[in-house]
Amino acid sequence: MGTGLLAIPTLAGSATYAVSEAFGWTEGLGRKPREAPGFYGVIGVAMLVGLTLNFVGFDPIQALYLSAILNGLAAPPLVLLMLIPVQLRGRGETTGRDALGRTGRRHLPGDVALGDRLSRVAAERLTHPVGGVEHRDMHGHGFAFRKRREDTRCILYGKETDMGIRRSNLFGALLLSLVIVTSACTRGEEDGNGDGGTAQPAPTESLLQTITDRGVLRCGVNNTVPGFGFETAEGQIEGFDVDFCKAFAAAMFGTPSPEEGTHYELIPIDADARFNALRAGEFDVLVRNTTWTSSRDGAEGVSFAHPNFYDGQAILAPEDDFASLEDLDGANICVTTGTTTELNLADYFASRDLDFEPIVLEDYEVIFEAFRQNRCDAVTGDRSALAGLLPLWEEDVPNLTIFEDVISKEPLAPGVLDGDDEWFDVVNMVVNGIILAEELGVTSENVAQEIEGPSDPFIGALLGVPVQEGEELGLGFDPGLAVDPTFMQNVLQAVGNYGEIFERNLTPLGHERGINALWTDGGIQYAIPFR
Questions:
Q1: What separation in angstroms does the CA of 310 have from each of 120, 170, 382, 401, 516?
Q2: Starting at the edge strand that comes first in sequence, how are the strands of the sheet with 142-147 ordered?
Q3: Does 492 score more than 60 pLDDT?
Q4: Which run of H or of E encompasses 130?
Q5: How far apart are CA 527 and CA 10, in angstroms?
Q6: DSSP letter string over 213-275?
Q7: Separation of alpha carbons 417 and 284, rounded Å
Q8: Phi, psi (degrees; rounded to nearest 5) at 327
Q9: CA 258 from chain center: how many Å?
């Protein structure tokens, strides 16, 4: 905004001065409107044109682009016109006739006329570095610079004008800039994407290639939610989402044994900073129990892969104090900053004519301290997160319960930046392949046997190996991704299928498969086929 206030009056004012010069009008912001009606009239017309652009749907950025092209095309002939009179004058044509051989009072275009005068003044100024230089042009108009110790003054058209910024000059410049900046800001609001989010342009090189060259995959994860991403006493971050990070690394680097520090890095990130960190390139993939929503897909500029866990928002509270959700009317409820939970809870409570006071805190560690100190009457969050935290918190706050009420749908999915199809396709197909492997019965235990001789054509396609029967007889299936077609072999040897990942990380905490069961078992987990 500050740069615009300085630059816009200069750029816009040049047109006004040029028009006034071309027609010989009295000009200058130092003059009153009645002394220079044409000059101020051009400014007024320029303001109206600028404001009108907002109502006709014309893009001001496109106008700026087109004006730059026209300016570039017009510059060479104008420079030539400026040089011609200088050259002719150098040959002695300094009287009677003008530089183009015409008699009488003539006006060159504003920029040419002004350039003609300045070129002569500059030349004479170089030969008179001290004192003053006065020059009279072909029309008898005075144009001089006088050097004084206290200031510099310009004598133009026989009148002396202070070249410092007068109050009237400043007022005019600010008024003009305010109109133009307001026009630009109004247009920006119409074209913006909301939520402060800035969609990122497509990278010139796929992030997949950058990761390959770097040799290490960086995953943004949680470290405070048991079962999904939780830091142990030994400093290791383990969980459901961490296994998916390992799976991506196995596919990327073609290894059945990806190691932290060698093939992948785990970068803990808070909920409110995760999308900015992803856009800033602090990690390559966000796999941190993150809900896929329309605004995050749009305004935040994130492409979400197939959901790896279908969740729902719930409320945890002491059972002795609150028997049902209705008992929480007017309660203080802790929520995590940077999540959808507060808005979901507000909508849910309003629909039931209930009220609550949100206590917004950084993460579950801070929330637990507030909960233990009775600053919160209850806590809301993803049901899966609350189920993992409940056994830990009950050591300090006994008789906790999670209400059965489902406040919202929370499809959790890995996310990458928009615009990089190669990298997104790899992440998306790894998630689908892990789910499909469970459906086909391929596990970390039998994958080596299936590689040697697939028991089913669909398994052969999943693993990228030749099949014994079917339409692809004798050929290994290649889905056309930017990784080796056998990538699922390494993924399954590294972490197993979806059921194995679930049982290893979530079943010990009491999580049931529920809607995360396969579609063949009554759930909604349904992977696309490898065909």
A1: 78, 61, 10, 21, 6
A2: 132-136, 142-147, 152-156, 159-162
A3: yes
A4: none
A5: 60
A6: HHT-EEEEE-SEETTTEEE-TTS-EESHHHHHHHHHHHHHHT-SS--BTTTEEEEE--GGGHH
A7: 8
A8: -70, -10
A9: 31
The radius of gyration of the chain's CA atoms, rounded to the nearest angstrom, is 36
Q: For 464, left (φ over 0), alpha (ψ -120 to 50), or beta?
A: left
Q: What are phi and psi of 155, to 5 degrees?
A: -105, 110
pLDDT bracket for residue 54 (50, 70, 90): low
Reduced to 3 states (helix: H, G, I; strand: E, B; else coil), residue 11 is helix
Tokens, residue 86? 């200088």
How many degrees, rounded to 5, is the angle at CA 237 between CA 441 and CA 272? 105
Q: Which two tokens stand for residue 208?
A: 């997949």
Does the pLDDT value for residue 395 go beyond 60? yes
Answer for the pair 250, 495: CB distance below 8 angstroms, yes or no: yes
Q: What pLDDT is stored for residue 118 in this prediction?
A: 42
Q: What is the pLDDT of residue 60?
A: 62
**Residues 6+ away with beta carbon under 8 Å from 485:** 464, 476, 477, 478, 479
Q: What is the pTM of this model?
A: 0.61
Q: Which are the contacts of 496, defined by CB distance < 8 A and separation ≥ 6?
A: 443, 444, 504
- Token representation of residue 128: 């008179």
DSSP-assigned letter for residue 473:
B
Which residues is 160 bridged to in the sheet? Answer: 155
Please classify residue 178 by burial: count the beta carbons closer than 10 Å to its beta carbon, then call 0-12 exposed, 13-18 middle and 19+ buried. middle
Pairwise CA distance, residues 362 & 506, whole Å: 24
Question: How many Cβ atoms are within 10 Å of 208's Cβ, its own excluded?
Answer: 23
Q: Which of 385, 387, 44 is nearest to 225 (CA)?
A: 385
Q: In the chain, what are the domains?
A: 2-117+165-191 (no CATH), 207-270+283-290+415-521 (3.40.190), 309-411 (3.40.190.10)
